[in-house]
Write a structure and sequence with these properties.
about 170 residues, mainly alpha, about 80% helix, 6 helices
């Protein structure tokens, strides 16, 4: 394998590694969102349910309470917030998105490992090497790409750059 092919393989591995990390970060984000929305809705609804057991307050004291502390307002607003959290969890489907990104990250990792094996493999002929490289390129080109937040892509790029795994050819 000549220097040009080695540089190409190294660049593809770097790009694949970045997408692997970016999808992993995106998966963690969706998992966290799912957990946050679910737990918030659960505990707020639990608090609303127990609010019916609050001690009775005299009418004079009740009139002095701020509007959110009045039971009917608290229950209405709390129920609205629970409905919003539940609706977001239903329509955004963060758990499904997290799983898709996790699976995509695993796919990128497997492809990166194939590129690593190619880089260290000794081929009997130039045609065997080219055939294997074309096969890898087809796999790379046919990878589906899920949308990633730019923040997570940049975070992944910085992580891969900090590893200094892909800089040795360019030093």
């Amino acid at each position: 394998m000549n220097l040009e092919e080695t540089s190409l393989i190294l660049d593809w591995r770097r790009k694949i590694h970045q997408m692997e990390y970016a999808n992993r970060y995106q998966s963690m984000y969706w998992s966290y969102l799912n957990l946050s929305l679910g737990l918030s809705a659960f505990f707020l609804s639990l608090f609303i349910a127990f609010s019916f057991k609050f001690p009775e307050v005299s009418i004079e004291e009740y009139d002095k309470l701020c509007w959110i502390c009045k039971h009917e307002n608290f229950v209405a607003l709390g129920s609205l917030i629970v409905a919003l959290f539940t609706g977001l969890n239903t329509f955004l489907k963060p758990n499904e998105r997290a799983e898709k990104h996790r699976a995509k990250s695993d796919s990128y990792e497997r492809l990166r490992r194939e590129f690593e094996r190619y880089a260290i493999k000794e081929f009997k002929s130039k045609s065997d090497s080219e055939e294997a490289l074309n096969d890898l390129q087809n796999k790379y080109d046919n990878m589906d790409i899920l949308n990633i937040f730019e923040f997570f892509y940049n975070k992944a790029r910085k992580k891969v750059k900090a590893d200094k795994k892909y800089t040795k050819l360019f030093e």
